[in-house]
């Protein structure tokens, strides 16, 4: 495919990512970018510009050197966990939790002298005090310049989105790798970001302008996204505790069989919204092959991860993909889609 075709393919994938749950974590970062601003259009533009630049550079690198630069599942899981912490801080900041509000840099920490005749109440706001004097709560005076710490925040958060890929992002990155060209790879990832830019832009401006009326709702939504993101990171890193629900798939006779050579074959379907069966029981100590089967599958599940083995596999839209598991010892082998959303496991006993 030439660069225009790759750009178009990336844009279609980006548009789909912008209107699905792929956008949840990155919209949380966007909320942090527009915090404490009355004019959200500038921070939103900086966020989207940095996001475009970071993804375009990544695409060029992927097209040039291939998937070797991709972080493994445990690294991505740790990044998702860190993103969850950031989202939690943003949510608590919106809810007015004082320790968090002190921790995060704010726009315009010092006050300007009031105009003649201005209401004295404007000077007496708890968050506003003269430079060099103690705050209303007795805290040390702020020495930040107006806007210090927040000028580059939207761009930094926009660039950071490259570290939080979802399943559809991974699909676009696969196209960049397959292009075998820095120009083609850059075109794919630039198209991906541009495809989702209208959704990000509209949501960012809307949140910025309606923040006062929607603050509690946005904060609760960010808390929910933070929990969901943390859960995804724990799954992706392989840090979820084993247990619960385990052996119900043993009754599914079609999931496990032994072929003529004596190998144990475990067949799992990768569907758009999960794996079927998601929980399988198999024999331990037997040479085992995992068959991942797709049929017009285009969702997150095409990016298949086995965290404990640091394995990432991108499945075709249609067909069977075989993974040699060796002769597993007794225990549980967890798997998940590469964005941490859809988990499953094989219990060997």
UniProtKB/TrEMBL annotation:
InterPro entries for this protein: Cupredoxin, EfeO_Cupredoxin, UreH-like_TM_dom
Top-level division of the source organism's lineage: Bacteria
Any Pfam family the entry gives: DsbD_2
TM annotation in the entry: 78-97, 155-177, 183-207, 214-231
Annotated EfeO-type cupredoxin-like domain residues: 258-345
Domain Urease accessory protein UreH-like transmembrane per the UniProt entry, residue ranges: 149-219
Keyword Translocase: no
Coiled coil: none
Annotated spans, Disordered: 122-151
Biased composition (Low complexity): 130-142
Keywords on record: Membrane, Transmembrane, Transmembrane helix
Protein name per its UniProtKB record: Sulfite exporter TauE/SafE family protein
Organism phylogeny: Bacteria, Bacillati, Actinomycetota, Actinomycetes, Streptosporangiales
């Amino acid at each position: 495919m030439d660069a225009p075709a790759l750009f178009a393919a990336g844009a279609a994938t980006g548009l789909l990512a912008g209107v699905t749950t792929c956008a949840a974590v990155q919209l949380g970062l966007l909320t942090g970018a527009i915090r404490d601003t009355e004019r959200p259009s500038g921070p939103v533009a900086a966020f989207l510009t940095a996001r475009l630049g970071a993804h375009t550079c990544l695409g060029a690198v992927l097209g040039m050197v291939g998937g070797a630069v991709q972080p493994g599942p445990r690294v991505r899981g740790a990044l998702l966990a860190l993103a969850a912490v950031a989202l939690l801080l943003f949510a608590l900041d919106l809810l007015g939790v004082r320790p968090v509000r002190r921790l995060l840099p704010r726009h315009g920490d010092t006050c300007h002298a009031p105009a003649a005749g201005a209401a004295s109440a404007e000077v007496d706001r708890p968050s506003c005090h003269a430079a060099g004097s103690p705050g209303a709560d007795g805290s040390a005076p702020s020495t930040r310049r107006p806007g210090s710490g927040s000028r580059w925040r939207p761009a930094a958060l926009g660039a950071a989105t490259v570290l939080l890929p979802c399943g559809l992002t991974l699909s676009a990155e696969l196209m960049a790798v397959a292009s075998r060209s820095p120009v083609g790879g850059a075109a794919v990832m630039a198209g991906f970001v541009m495809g989702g830019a209208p959704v990000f832009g509209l949501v960012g401006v809307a949140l910025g302008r309606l923040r006062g009326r929607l603050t509690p709702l946005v904060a609760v939504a960010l808390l929910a996204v933070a929990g969901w993101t943390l859960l995804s990171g724990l799954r992706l890193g392989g840090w979820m505790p084993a247990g619960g629900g385990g052996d119900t798939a043993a009754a599914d006779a079609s999931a496990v069989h032994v072929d003529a050579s004596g190998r144990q074959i475990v067949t799992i379907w990768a569907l758009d919204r999960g794996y079927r069966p998601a929980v399988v029981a198999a024999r331990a100590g037997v040479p085992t092959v995992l068959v991942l089967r797709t049929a017009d599958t285009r969702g997150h599940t095409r990016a298949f991860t086995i965290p404990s083995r640091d394995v990432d596999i991108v499945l075709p839209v249609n067909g069977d993909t075989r993974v040699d598991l060796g002769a597993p010892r007794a225990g549980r082998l967890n798997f998940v889609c590469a964005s941490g959303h859809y988990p499953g496991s094989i219990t060997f006993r």
